[in-house]
Amino acid sequence: MKWLLIASIPVYLFGSFKRPIFALAVLVELVYLASRGIGLGRLPLIGPQDTLAFFSCSIGLMALPFLFTRELAEEEGLRWSCGALAAFFAGLALPFPTLNMPLPPVLDTYWFELHVALAFFAYALFGVGALLGGAFLLKGRRSLLDLQYRAALTGYSFFSLSMVSGGIWGYYAWGTYWLWTPKELWTSILWLFYSLFLHLRAKGSSWDKGFAWLGIVGFVVTLFTYLGVSIFMRSSHSF
């Protein structure tokens, strides 16, 4: 069923023309993930290919509610940006092999799946927020900044729940709620960053551009937390 993942890439890119096409791309990727999950008997969340495909689908899924708002009805450029971001990570997943092994005992719990799924939903919303911030810097429309705040706040809520479920999983797996691994350290940095970022909204319009730029920086921190730590640091949370 890997052809479904491949097929989603051009559909995402053509989704800039019509919102239903973008929704179709999300559906194609959901079918791919569902077929993987049914075959594995679990959520496909192990290994680079599955996590990158899940991240790609999360971006498309989290972007949909924003793209169907009245404020973004005519924003083809933003729709293309969201599609390009989802397509990029789908394409990035393709060179990696699929891992069809059962979950190791340490991961074989619903708390692990909940923890990872919520984290990817949060990462996706931080990405959508970064694109909305970039659109605000280009067009200066205040409504875009309001949507960026909404995306970041929803993502922050998902991320906070991910940390709670991750702590519960860690207790069952290792007997402790927190291990000072590089992944957990950068997770706390990311959570603190968005805690401060969301409070900046109270500073008023004088901080509008700074808020938009920090939303973009936040997604860079997000990508390092997800990919950078796995690539450059040894951690029990690596792929």
Automatic annotation (TrEMBL):
Keywords: Cytochrome c-type biogenesis, Membrane, Transmembrane, Transmembrane helix. The chain crosses the membrane at residues 21-39, 51-68, 80-96, 116-138, 150-173, 185-202, 211-233. InterPro entries: Cyt_c_assembly, Cyt_c_biogenesis_CcsA/CcmC. Pfam families: Cytochrom_C_asm. It is a multi-pass membrane protein. It is found in: Membrane. One of its GO terms (molecular function) is heme binding. Residues 82-231 form the Cytochrome c assembly protein domain. One of its GO terms (cellular component) is plasma membrane. GO terms for biological process: cytochrome complex assembly. This is Cytochrome c biogenesis protein ResC. It comes from Geomonas limicola. The lineage of its organism: Bacteria, Pseudomonadati, Thermodesulfobacteriota, Desulfuromonadia, Geobacterales.
